[in-house]
Amino acid sequence: MLDTTFAALADPTRRAILRRLAEGEATVTELSAPFAMSQPAISKHLKVLERAGLISRGRDGQRRPCRLEAGPLKNAMDWISDYRDYWEESYQRLDALLLNEPSDLNELNDGEEDQS
């Protein structure tokens, strides 16, 4: 499911649609307004987002509003968070190493002071 989520998020139009849906539900007509695209083109993007589980479509009389579904985004965030933790730990180890070991610059400065 993660592959489908990232594939859906790869397109800037779909990310913009999700950003809009984060503000609240919207119809296809409302979602297509800011784009220079036809409603059928927006509908294709919505189908990709729906297949990825990122949105759902309800029924409200004649309207079929789209809603953001947070589950797949949370799963993607959790996966990314694991790598964020890895990099943070790496940076902390690097910081500790740099604090505990004299740098070449300090050694050069010490050598210059001895020559004066």
TrEMBL record:
<dbReference type="InterPro" id="IPR036388">
    <property type="entry name" value="WH-like_DNA-bd_sf"/>
</dbReference>
<dbReference type="GO" id="GO:0003700">
    <property type="term" value="F:DNA-binding transcription factor activity"/>
</dbReference>
<dbReference type="InterPro" id="IPR036390">
    <property type="entry name" value="WH_DNA-bd_sf"/>
</dbReference>
<protein>
    <submittedName>
        <fullName>Winged helix-turn-helix transcriptional regulator</fullName>
    </submittedName>
</protein>
<dbReference type="Pfam" id="PF01022">
    <property type="entry name" value="HTH_5"/>
</dbReference>
<dbReference type="InterPro" id="IPR001845">
    <property type="entry name" value="HTH_ArsR_DNA-bd_dom"/>
</dbReference>
<feature type="domain" description="HTH arsR-type">
    <location>
        <begin position="1"/>
        <end position="88"/>
    </location>
</feature>
<dbReference type="InterPro" id="IPR011991">
    <property type="entry name" value="ArsR-like_HTH"/>
</dbReference>
